[in-house]
Amino acid sequence: MVSRAEAKAAKKMTASHEEIETPWTLMWKRFKKNKIAMSGLYIFIFLLLFVIIGPLLSPYDPNLYMDFEHINAAPTISHLLGTDELGRDYLTRIMIGGQVSLMVGLFAVVISIVFG
C-alpha cells in the first residue's frame, strides 16, 4: 500500500514535470505574441505556396508559350500582370523566378552548413 505522503510526493513530481517547457515551446509562445512576427510568417508561407504551387496551377508555360496576339499586353483576366515582348505571361515567369531564387538560397545554405 502507498502512504499518503508517498502519493503526495509522486503527485508533486508529476506536476513539476509538466511545468518544464523546452526552449522551442518557449520560443514559439513568445513568437506567437509578436503580431509583426506572425504577420511576417503568414506572408512567408503565402510566398512559399505561391512559388511552389502557383506554376502547377498556371495554364501557361513560362518559356514555351508565346501569345503573339497579346505582345506587351496590359493586365487582363487571362494575363493578370500582362505579357512581355514575346507574349509570355509575367505572373507565371515571376513564379518560376521565385523557384529559382529559393533553390539558389537553399543551395547557399547547404554549402555554408557543409563547409562552415
Mean of pLDDT = 87
Report, as a whole number of angstroms, the end-to-end distance.
Answer: 59 Å
Largest sheet: none
Overall outline: elongated
The helix count comes to: 4
Low-confidence stretches: none
- Fraction of residues in H or I helices: 55-70%
Q: Into which percentage range does the β-strand content fall?
A: under 5%
Order of helices and strands: HHHH
Number of strands: 0
What is the radius of gyration?
Answer: 26 Å
State the secondary-structure class.
mainly alpha
Short précis:
The protein has 116 residues and is mainly alpha-helical. Helices cover 65% and strands 0% of the residues. The longest helix is centred in the last third of the chain and has 26 residues, at 90-115.
Q: Mind explaining what this structure looks like?
A:
With 116 residues, the chain is an all-alpha fold. It is built from four helices and no strands. Helix 3 crosses helix 4.
Please describe the structure with a list of short key phrases separated by commas or semicolons:
65% helix, 116 residues, mainly alpha
Secondary-structure blueprint:
Blueprint: H1 4-18, H2 23-33, H3 35-57, H4 90-115
Helix pairs in contact: 3-4
